[in-house]
Here is the input.
Amino acid sequence: MAGSTFGTIFLISTWGESHGKAIGVVIDGCPAGLALDESDIQPFLNRRKPGQSVYSTPRKEDDVVEILSGIFEGRTTGTPISMIVYNKTQQSKDYSEIASYYRPGHADYTFDAKYGFRDYRGGGRSSGRETIARVAAGAVAIKILNQLGITFTTYTRSIGDIEIDPARFDVEEIFNNKLYMPDAEAAIRAGNYVIEMTKEHDSVGGQIESIIKGLPAGIGDTVFEKLDANLAKAAMSIGAVKAVEIGDGIAASRLSGSINNDGFQIKDGSISKRSNHAGGILGGMSDGSDIILRTSFKATPSILKNQLTVNKNNTEIEVSIKGRHDPIIVPRAVVVVESMAAITVLDALLLNMTATMEGIARFYS
Amino acid sequence: MAGSTFGTIFLISTWGESHGKAIGVVIDGCPAGLALDESDIQPFLNRRKPGQSVYSTPRKEDDVVEILSGIFEGRTTGTPISMIVYNKTQQSKDYSEIASYYRPGHADYTFDAKYGFRDYRGGGRSSGRETIARVAAGAVAIKILNQLGITFTTYTRSIGDIEIDPARFDVEEIFNNKLYMPDAEAAIRAGNYVIEMTKEHDSVGGQIESIIKGLPAGIGDTVFEKLDANLAKAAMSIGAVKAVEIGDGIAASRLSGSINNDGFQIKDGSISKRSNHAGGILGGMSDGSDIILRTSFKATPSILKNQLTVNKNNTEIEVSIKGRHDPIIVPRAVVVVESMAAITVLDALLLNMTATMEGIARFYS
Amino acid sequence: MAGSTFGTIFLISTWGESHGKAIGVVIDGCPAGLALDESDIQPFLNRRKPGQSVYSTPRKEDDVVEILSGIFEGRTTGTPISMIVYNKTQQSKDYSEIASYYRPGHADYTFDAKYGFRDYRGGGRSSGRETIARVAAGAVAIKILNQLGITFTTYTRSIGDIEIDPARFDVEEIFNNKLYMPDAEAAIRAGNYVIEMTKEHDSVGGQIESIIKGLPAGIGDTVFEKLDANLAKAAMSIGAVKAVEIGDGIAASRLSGSINNDGFQIKDGSISKRSNHAGGILGGMSDGSDIILRTSFKATPSILKNQLTVNKNNTEIEVSIKGRHDPIIVPRAVVVVESMAAITVLDALLLNMTATMEGIARFYS
Amino acid sequence: MAGSTFGTIFLISTWGESHGKAIGVVIDGCPAGLALDESDIQPFLNRRKPGQSVYSTPRKEDDVVEILSGIFEGRTTGTPISMIVYNKTQQSKDYSEIASYYRPGHADYTFDAKYGFRDYRGGGRSSGRETIARVAAGAVAIKILNQLGITFTTYTRSIGDIEIDPARFDVEEIFNNKLYMPDAEAAIRAGNYVIEMTKEHDSVGGQIESIIKGLPAGIGDTVFEKLDANLAKAAMSIGAVKAVEIGDGIAASRLSGSINNDGFQIKDGSISKRSNHAGGILGGMSDGSDIILRTSFKATPSILKNQLTVNKNNTEIEVSIKGRHDPIIVPRAVVVVESMAAITVLDALLLNMTATMEGIARFYS
Here is the structure.
């Protein structure tokens, strides 16, 4: 059963394990004529790299991307783009202990249940390193979308109970702090909270929000291929994500219709909405407002604190997960969410080109 | 662009508009040998029928399903099952007013933006009647899954701010009240709230929860085809859904790892989890616990209360949406969520058969 | 396993058995804004209707198509188009004999091998009536393609050993004879041959050729989604087809490179080919010349002549297939081949819109 | 538009250009538990390697495969298998001449028509080197199928007009001659013919036949996913293929029904066919007999002989294609056809596991 392939027109196929030789992705369906080289991809990978702050694992992973195909004289040719990142720094450490039991909150048990055995080195295919491939593909999608006037702003919205304050929202601040929060004050409090929980040998979760600007109205479809449905799948397919919201999300279930409905208005000569509870999607299609996607991540399951679990001999044991783990994965996941959102939006945009006879006739005239 | 087709092995293709001749679905890929006739489908359609209580539109829709193909001597043959429900009661009322403006919270504007025009009669393809086709297909999926020991319990978890109380949770109560709430007391309060809001010419949202029992561990995939990712898409593809959660969902983002992780234990001689914050899915695969899926619906956008909007002449106007609309769609959507969840789980279960050489060799021996 | 769904953007899902209630198709992904009603479809269905000549079964099948969805005010809306043809004239005859044994050349045995049982009435899903759905969808594809300047000419190329003579090729003649041969003289000889074989209680095969004009160069893809690969699948998916050729086809395997290669030239100021051995496709993509697709059909397997076979009691028996069968299916299959070719070409044309950044940017500017 | 991805359950995604850094494939959906390393793949790649005889290009390509993912402790894990073959020996020769004009019989013109430019070095993505990826994936499919008792015999059936003589058919001979013909005498004549044509600066085509043994009856589907339809697509997707036949193929169109039909018999206590005109497929499903697939290849388009064509300045010119090209590609393509057939059959076999309730219930019991 194939499970590492995503998309329809802009189709990505990812591969690689945490402690295998390499991680990679093939993009099948990238339009021809896009100027592209590794320098377009690397900055995105750097955003997810560990070891950049006290809030992430001190592991050093020197994730350098190489493009192996699909480019000629600096431009995409329309043929598959294969990208690879070698796993350079994995240590040949002893995994026999971790192989012997099921870590709570991890895929160890489910992997064994499905396949009968697993690559237990560093989580194997279920490792966060798998997202390198998503980010490499996402960087390409974002470059294409940017050229069409569509932009992404993604940031940490909350860590534990500490949320950003909309009144202090400052887009410039996002890259100023290591937690990627658009609120300097919340970032300091959240940072302290993470450090405190780390000291307690515990870990922390949080929320990521993406704002997509510039998408024309009418992108997405009416029934199963709703833009929000595909964004939900894209986001929920990221490890540790437990909830996905569009616009007001859960809060919308508590509002009355008269409050939640966004009235239309004429502004600057064209139609827009007076508010954006809907998060930019109506009936599965973009409505011209900003798309708002919110994703909730559970706390890192690997903690030093003792936990109860069982080993492969069916014996109950107490374990402490050693190793250099992120106390929180949210900051590093910001670029992963952005990448998955971009891949999804690009695919919808490409599919939309075939929606009307008028558009098709115009294209081929 | 095709947007009304869902699934891989158990593939459904739905069609039909609110005020067209009929609504229907083709199931391509239903296994052969299932005893099936209309009496397996009709009870599910009856659960979503309007006009059953004061909480739903007094419109009478006599939705009778007919199976047109794929059955021979009472059993499925492995060929496509085509099901149809004729739209009997649509009135030839005057839609010229509704055609002239964009209803807030509806797909009117996005439909026009995408296609240049729309079938404005009763919402056309974006009508809630579209879900008839999902429920008909879901009934088949549920019958198959039941035979494999997998069951679904779905109910209203909250309406507006009124949530069920876990201490009063009573599965028998679900079908005792017209809101499908498993808490008789909450159902009374919620009912009063809906009536009150209806009097105010307003509408109400809420949450639906599904519990899936009996699914073996290991169903779903590790990366993009995670079981939770596909459940998220399935649920978010239902009109008016704005959020999807698995297990503790958003709350998981606030818990520390030591609390959120579900330790494993040995119970009755086999491995299980001590708690179920994860909602039955780890690393994209079922873990043997109950699958918990929670879906948040916005309030019905059609309200009698005056709203600001614009018409097709680009003039700002005030409108009141007349007609017999549901003040809340949540109770009728319970069976829709259950259907989409079942279709998704069945597809994952079928795909899982090809996961290992051992399973394949055993099958063909 | 889903097997009755075809295409990517223009996706069709067919259903129905020979002696079930109806046959139908859902087109998911038809562009919006196409003027369409039943009168666009019916003439194509009439071309495949039986009972039109001495060369086909005298069975009368009054195949009247009805469109159930996807049209509003005479135009396609972009939502699924459901079409249905009721099976009006099937007799409630006794099928117990045919149910008891395996007809040579039919799918009886393979159906039982796969599913354990079968709908034996008139071939069930493996009946030629299944192609009604393909033709209904094909009629829509052809209408779209015609509006883009792409046309189809399809005819019988040979019957048994009797081939059309290129020197006498006359496109006007195709609809002048009941065998759809573009050579009046060959048509007479072929007609006599069919009548003779019918008298001998035997049946006849033949070849169908499609010429597609007006397709721009560059449609199709380089590797697996080659235009010829998809045409081959489309054609071979029609019952009784045993070979598919593009251009010179098999003959190309006997020619030397210097003869088979089509040199390019400048004609009327633009590039074209000096010959068309390639049948209009180079490297999987259309080259601007006519696309030539040739399909070979075996003789109708149902014959009155005695044949050896086995029954379900594993006993060898001799059988004579009674009933009103076509002595040759080729003439009726002409429109089926044309339909499948059109569906394939349209899908490739729509997919091609996303091939280049320049095209995408132009579309969204 | 994605065009380098093939399959449903056993899904392959290929990438790489002739003169890029590498060629590769990702297999997404390989079952877990298969013992696999490079030594399973390399012998298949060696069968397609050039420079092995006077009948193929003297170019040396040292195509060494490396597995990058999906294997743990010698077995497949169920996660994607990424394989890479570096392009070691491409020379940095001057391609400016070949870039300036359109080679007859090649994809140069269609590539430019589609994308506006092309990677002209050695054919780019349209090079025969692309098939390295197919063969690497095919080797895995064949290993799986062999373990299930399904075997492949593939050979050259004809070169130019020289066909093998069934009376001299000797399976042992296939690997004894460099043309992979199962008839030593035909191989000598064909070899002489190729040498003669090479001296004339011309090239030669031919036919490849695959015999698939051991496939159980009932594999494949009834309508679009017919086993023969998918084999036709698989075969026609190989560069230079112009025709695909199943069983008697084109000859079947000339036979009467009474001759072409294969009667059933009881032999060794079970049902089989008395003959195999059908090539092992009835109604799209395997019938338990050998599957016979015949593929016709055109002559290599690159020839030293002068040809007329046009250059990018729209001027007619005469060209001679220099370089070390195969005078015939058929012998090297034998393993490519076998690979594509195996990938197709494996996918059908895996899909078939979900065909019946009985099979599903048995699997999950």
